[in-house]
Amino acid sequence: MRRLFRTATAALVLVAALSAMASCASSDSVSGEVRFHRDVELPAGATVTVTLRDTSLADASAIELGRDVIVDAGRLPLRFRIEFDGSEIDSRNEYTLSARVEADGELLYINDTVHPVITGGNPRNSDVRVISVNPFDQCVEPLPGRIHSGFWDGDLPDDAVLEIRLWDVSEPSERVLVVEGRFEDLGRFPIHFELPHEGVEISRHHRYELEAEIWFDGELQLHIPNPDWRRTVLPFCPDGDELSIVNDVFPVSEFPAE
Length: 258
Prior knowledge:
six-stranded antiparallel beta sheet
């Protein structure tokens, strides 16, 4: 009887061990960070949801394998970890990560690019980059830039003034002034500048034109004459030391306005 009991007990232990091994073998995870192009504070009560899906079939709904929901998320970037059943993975299929940030029932951020993972030579883990659903991204830092010139060596005159104007030229019939600034004590090229601290609304869907003029001796001396040369790309507000507004100025005497 005791032998039978010991045999049954051993069998149960073996079954439990095998079950645990099977569970460990099938349990898996992906991890990374949900990132905006800059660090950003989220509203109180914001929720970040990251989902792992099988997106192999273009004409069918994606199959969700797992998700991580982070409540009361304070800021981005934010780490996530999604657990899923590894036995559901088919090496022939495609698996992608997606993320959304919501607050008070309103969508704030979402990814607009595909983030493939696990199969097809893609990494096991991946960050997920999100964009603001608001077409305008409010810069919370000054908008930096620099002006060059290959037509002036040495210091500029003491009375030289740089005038900067950034225009939204998305609608050809209506140029909209976004922000402007006036700078003195220029020194020499390149001239570094920052547009104001109160913030600048920049849309990744719009087109912009930068006017830069340098005045001294009571006259306009250097400028950007050609409208095509004044075009500038601002996909979003720049981060830290990224100087996204960069352009050259030319002598008015040699390059009159077109």
